[in-house]
Amino acid sequence: MSEFASVLRSWRDRVRPEEVGLPAGPGRRTPGLRREELAALAGVSVDYVVRLEQGRARNPSAQLLGALATALRLSTAERDHLFRIAGVAPPSRQVVPRHVTPGVQRMVDRLGDVPLAVFTAAHDIVLWNDLWAAVNGDPGHWTGLEGNLVWRHFMHGHDGTDWDDEHQEEFSSDLVADLRAATGRYPADRDLAALVARLRRDSPEFERRWDTGRVAEHRASRKRVHTPVGSIEVDCDVLTVPGGDLRVVVYTTVPGSDDDAKLDLLRVTGLQDLAPEHPVTR
């Protein structure tokens, strides 16, 4: 058996179903994931997983390897090993990291009582919980640039979120300044460069702020978001994951307030045809 096939099977066996939101259920022959479960999580066919574990599948793509690494909850070192033994260069340190580490995955899994999402340094959304989707609309319906916070903010506006004029200007400027900082850290990332080029071409507001040359990071804000159960005032905090440059964005409300009660209601209603279609905010 090849090293790739061996570690893939070992890593599949060690992931407990409940870790990825699946029921353990009776009669399982392995404590880990079934092949069909891994296939569903990684977005591939069961037959392809079988061929990978039997060493019959050749030349898996970097995109597939990344999906497997996330589904199997691999550490960064394990992900890089998976890439190497597949004959693919691990993601460069000069491109925006997208790998969600096991610790961040567990944070999203366990903090289901607050809206929470994970963004890359380029502001692409990569992970979110159900309550985030209930507040902001389901990111699973977005494709391409629609999943990028900066693109949606400057190209679609911020319908569904209320700020005063001062905060609107500050938030917009911080987004641009943060994106500029990312281009310095990840000079080889073509997708990031293309995003900036398109925004400079298509959004005069983005171009105006880009021309200031400002470099900064957005950390916290307060805003009012419109949801199917009414508007809710939230504090938004942005936490940076050391080593991976991911941003964990968390909404909280004042305990015992009317806003807190509305968020409780959203926890119950979830995505039952109530999710708004307005652009994602942060």
Question: What distinguishing features does this structure have?
Answer:
single chain; 282 residues; alpha+beta; 6-stranded antiparallel β-sheet; 12% strand; disordered C terminus
Notes on the protein architecture:
The chain has 282 residues and is an alpha+beta fold. Helix content is 44%, strand content 12%. The protein has a 6-stranded antiparallel sheet with strand order 2-1-6-5-4-3, sandwiched between helices. A hairpin with a 2-residue loop joins strand 4 and strand 5. It starts with a helix and ends in a 13-residue tail after the last helix. The C terminus is likely disordered.
Q: Order of strands side by side in the largest beta sheet?
A: 2-1-6-5-4-3
Provide the structure class.
Answer: alpha+beta
Distance between the termini: 47 Å
- Rounded radius of gyration (Å): 20 Å
Produce a short descriptive summary.
With 282 residues, the chain is of the alpha+beta class. It has twelve helices and six strands. A six-stranded antiparallel beta sheet has the order 2-1-6-5-4-3, sandwiched between helices.
List the helices and strands and how they pair.
Elements (H helix, E strand, L loop, with lengths): L2 H12 L20 H8 L3 H8 L8 H10 L4 H10 L16 H9 L5 E4 L5 E4 L1 H7 L12 H8 L4 E2 L2 H21 L4 H13 L1 H7 L9 E8 L2 E11 L6 E6 L5 H12 L13
Antiparallel strand pairs: 1-2, 1-6, 3-4, 4-5, 5-6
